[in-house]
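Q: For a teaching handout, I want to show students what a protein-ligand complex looks like in token form. Below are the inputs, and the small molecule is glutamine. Please produce the holo structure.
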Amino acid sequence: MGLKNLLEELSRVSPNPEAEIDTILKLEFSSSLVQAKVSGLSEHEIGKLEKIVHERVSSGRPVQYILGKAIFWERIFYVNESVLIPRVETEILAEKTLEIAKEIRARRILDVGTGSGIIAITLKEELPDVKIFATDVSEKALRVAHRNAQLLNAGVTFIQCDMLSCFGENTFDIIVSNPPYVGESDPFEEYRKFEPHIALYGGEKGYEFSLKLVRQAQNRLKKRGYVIMEVNPFNVEYFVESINLKHKIYKDFNGLKRVLVIENG
Ligand code: GLN
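A: Here is the structure, written as tokens, with glutamine included.
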């Protein structure tokens, strides 16, 4: 079976088969679809691709869960069904956080609901002198995050904690989060089917969790500290209306409102 047939087979379950083959090639062979199209694939590579594509088509599971790996910020992270699969939009959240952390010379940053640890670990890799803390309420997710920190040799302090309940006042320069923000009546998306409900759904409207997070962050932040969070482009206007704080919103590469920055005045 050649590349063309594999793409065809994959299109039975995938809205973007080319992107998925590209992801598999990157994760398994440090290659890419462009490279495969130019130089072709070895028999070994085709054999392995076939196996993965068959499993993807028959089970419906995303390729990242099948392979136990995903890419974020050009690094490979371990993932399983206890954590969300990293989204490329979330790189904007990490980028904005890095920018602000450098600008204010942040000393202590907290990542709330770290999941696989991608944000906390990326921040630690890019800002080795900053103390990075990360929480999650899920023990299973924290196991994944620990494993990633070990794999990438990143000194992040992980704490099992419900939101910010385990921290005292004036503790952080920045609180960053990609919280669950999907609402109960948001359109159903097939790609979320295999992911943990707790990591996706933020309440009936979707922003209830985020609202609670912003409230809890106020006194845990140092003066002039920042909350930086990923938001749902389809409910962010209602969310910011209900927090009534000075803020900025940044868009992703699809022009969708994606990152909210609040300065603690
Ligand atoms: N952006 C993700 C999605 O649309 C949701 C991630 C989240 O809830 N934080 O599926």
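A: Two things your students might notice: The CA atoms of residues 26 and 189 lie 25 Å apart. The mean pLDDT is 95.
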